[in-house]
Amino acid sequence: MSARTVWQLLPHLDPECTFHNVYGPAETTVATTYHFVTLEDLQKESIPIGHPLVGYQCYILDEYLQPVPPLATAELYVGGLGVFSGYFNRDDLTKQVLIDIPGVVDGKCYKTGDLVKLDSNGELYFV
Fold first, then answer.
1. Cα of 87 vs its chain's centroid, Å
2. For the domain 3-126, what is the CATH code?
C-alpha cells in the first residue's frame, strides 16, 4: 500500500478510521505480516508490510539461500504453521516453491517470488 493511496482515502473516511497493512499470498494462508499504519508512515514513500504474525517466520534470502543484510533487496521466503503443503496434482510446481533452507528446521519454506527489504527497525517493505 502506498502512502499516496491512504492520503487519497482519508477525506472520505471517519476520523477514527485506522489502517492496517497486511501481506500474505494464498500459499501462506493469506495473512503473513502485519503493520499498523501511523501518520509517520504517511510521510514515507512506501508503507511497511510489517513483522511476521505469530507462527510465521520471514527470511530475506539471496539466490544462494543466504540471508542478506538490512536494507538489501532480496526474495522473501515464508516458513511456519500456515504454509501450504503443495499444489493439487502439481508436484512440479510444488517442488519449485517449497524449499528446504539450510538451518531452518520447521519444515519447508514458501518461495514467494516477492522482493522485499528489511529496514533498520526490523520492518519489512514490499519492493
1. 20
2. 2.30.38.10
C-alpha separations of 47 from 10, 36, 71, 80, 101 in Å: 15, 10, 15, 24, 28
**What are 88-100's pLDDT values in tens digits?**
999 999 999 999 9
CB 25 within 8 A of CB 110: yes
Cell triple for residue 49? 508490510
The answer to whether 24 and 33 have CB atoms below 8 angstroms apart is yes
Distance CA 49, CA 91 (A): 30
Residue 5 CA to residue 24 CA, distance in Å, equals 19
